[in-house]
Amino acid sequence: MTNEAMFYELNWDEKPGAPLAPWTYSNPELFELEYEALFLRRWQLVGHVNDLPQVGDFITHDIGRDNIFVVRGKDEQLRAFKNVCRHRASRVLEGSGTCNGVIRCPYHGWIYQLDGSLMAIPKNENFEGIDKADHGLHEIQLEQFHGFLFVRLKGKGASVAEHFGDTGRYFEMYGVADYVQCMETTTQIWNCNWKVAWDNYLENYHIAIGHPGLSRLVRISDVGATLSSGVSFGEFDLRSKPSNVAAEREYQEMVEHAQARIPEEIRNKWVQFGLAPNLGIDLYPELLDIFQLIPLSHDKTMIRATYYGHQDPTPEEEELRRLNIRVNAPINDEDQQLCARVQQGLQTHGYTPGPLSYMEMDIYHFHEMIRELIPVAALKKSPLRGQVAAKNFELLASH
């Protein structure tokens, strides 16, 4: 595969190395370092352009403890801001909706234009010498990628398109730029470190045991790649043998009704993407689902699922979507239990990780990314309490 970005396809002939040490999955100090290096400094998916069709429309999104919002301005441009008033730090907007021409803080009533500039301050005479031009909302980086909206709160670097490289052609083949949200967003709280959940998403080794329904419907193909940007993808082939489970069999029988929308080369396939550290995108003929990790603490993670599809589904495609949810809904529940068991096991005194298989190579690449960005995570034993950040600074300085 040729990757037009600065990133390269990783060498699949290499052997997987050692995984991260168990302490890295339960250490609050390391969690803080990860939050800045991986969640604030890497692109985060927050929505789709079709979530904000009219002037004044807005959406909000949690990154972790940070919240951002995207709003469509009077000039039709989309802008992203930290969701915090410049006066006393109140959250400005909640959920999604439409602003009536301006953005008003619900605490003291500071009023901002849709471009983020400060427009008015109640009882302005009490703020001697204040310059409204210095107190606009904090704008952050926003990029569109085939209709999807990504933000980055800190730092600079490659664009979203450069991260995906040539693999972005899949999004064009499915036509996702024209998609709209087609089902309600759902969330779950998993009792595990975010890395446990992401490790689980990256590998297919557990599917045969952990997801029997998925195993009945698809088989792993040999089409896939991992890029050094943190993007990985793979194709799954739909099995032709009818399932003995009614909903799965109905899906197999009806999937042809959605195939005409997509090129022949991706028919009878499901395509899965991952963008480290926390975004999964699953492309089906009838819809697309988003699997997103929101880190809450060192041992709790929110799982957010969102669904997008064509704006004009046929009755058959709508039924396919319902069948898809019936078939795939158990997967998150199964993974929630599996990941909780892993989190418990990682805290067992004296536990030493076993080897990674070739089917878990993406985990190794992900762990190498963490070790590169946060070198203290490469240590087999945790530094003393209160010393994790200092040790990491020391290791970074010695590179």
Q: Sketch the topology as an H/E string, one letter per element.
A: HEEEEEEEEEEHHEHHHEEHHEEEEHHH
Separation of the first and last Cα atoms: 32 Å
Enumerate the strands of the largest sheet in spatial order, edge to edge or round the barrel: 1-10-9-4-3-2-5
- In terms of per-residue confidence, which ranges show pLDDT below 50 for 5 or more consecutive residues? 1-6
Instruction: Please indicate the count of domains.
Output: 2
CATH class of the largest domain reads: Alpha Beta
SSE class: alpha+beta
Instruction: Quickly give the CATH architecture of the largest domain.
Output: Alpha-Beta Complex
Helix segment tally: 11
How many strands?
A: 17
Strand content: 25-35%
Helix fraction by DSSP (H/I, runs of at least 4): 25-40%
Q: What would CATH call the homologous superfamily of the largest domain?
A: Naphthalene 1,2-dioxygenase Alpha Subunit, Chain A, domain 1
Major sheet details: 7 strands, antiparallel
* Dominant shape: globular
- Report the CATH topology name of the largest domain: Naphthalene 1,2-dioxygenase Alpha Subunit, Chain A, domain 1
Summarize the structure in words.
The model is unreliable at 1-6 (pLDDT under 50). This protein has helices at 28-40, 160-164, 169-174, 194-202, 207-210, 212-217, 246-254, 256-259, 315-346, 361-373, 388-398; strands at residues 44-48, 57-62, 67-72, 78-82, 96-98, 103-104, 111-112, 118-120, 139-145, 148-152, 180-190, 218-226, 231-238, 269-275, 279-283, 288-297, 300-309. The protein is of the alpha+beta class. The chain is 28% helix and 26% strand. Helix 7 (246-254) packs across helix 9 (315-346).
